[in-house]
Amino acid sequence: MSFQPSREQFRTMILYDWKIGLTYKDSHAHLVQAWREQATSDHTVFNWFREFQRDNFSVKDAPRSGRPSTSVNEQTIDAVRKIIEDDPHSTYQQIENIIGYQLKRFEEGQSRCVFDIITGDESWFYHYDSELKEQSKVWMSTTDPHPTKIHRTKSAGKRMVAIFFMKSGLIKSVPLETDATVNAS
């Protein structure tokens, strides 16, 4: 059978079965009888029966935050492939800006907890300006030969710095003396 009912069409069939007084198991049995392996699961039918009992009769998908389900399609994949072919050093942020999708986990203003998190890190800072490893990365297909990377020797001078920051930005950076530690005091 080539016709595949949409989720909304299945939900409408489930709503009809609920309205005429069938149990969710009977409704699922009817769907399996008519649609075989294309039918929704009995758990899905159970959940929709529960929604209808709560007077929620909308069979449409509720709006959700995050990436739209239509964002991954052939057109988008081809566009990303072209960006990478044009500039193999493209970053995820540059690709997101060009394509127009931002894959956010937190919508702006939904969670205030991220403003309260303070984190810290310690890092060595060398006395020369080297190219970051991240900047030297190149997008490649599995058939491309690996690029040659020239490694520079590190200079003798380096300094450990403890950095503390939160979502709003840098709170404090503390250059550490040799064999020194930083604590709450």
Question: Would you kindly provide a written description of the structure presented here, covering whatever features stand out?
Answer:
With 185 residues, the chain is of the alpha+beta class. It has 3 domains: 7-53, Orthogonal Bundle (Arc Repressor Mutant, subunit A); 69-99, no CATH class; 113-175, no CATH class. 31% of the residues lie in helices and 14% in strands. It contains 5 helices and 3 strands. The protein has helices spanning 7-19, 24-35, 42-53, 74-86, 92-99, and strands at 118-126, 158-166, 169-175. Strands 1-2-3 form a 3-stranded antiparallel beta sheet, with no helix packed on it. A hairpin with a 2-residue loop joins β2 (158-166) and β3 (169-175). It starts with 6 loop residues before the first helix and ends in a 10-residue tail after the last strand. The model is unreliable at 102-107 (pLDDT under 50).
Largest sheet: 3 strands, antiparallel
Question: Alpha-carbon distance between the termini?
Answer: 72 Å
Helical residues, percent: 25-40%
Placed side by side, the strands forming the largest sheet appear as 1-2-3
Task: Assign the structural class, choosing from mainly alpha, mainly beta, alpha/beta, alpha+beta, or little secondary structure.
Answer: alpha+beta
Question: Which regions contain 5 or more consecutive residues with pLDDT less than 50?
Answer: 102-107
Number of E-type strands = 3
* Gross geometry: elongated
Total domains: 3
Count of DSSP helices? Answer: 5
Q: What's the overall average pLDDT, rounded?
A: 78
Strand content: 5-15%
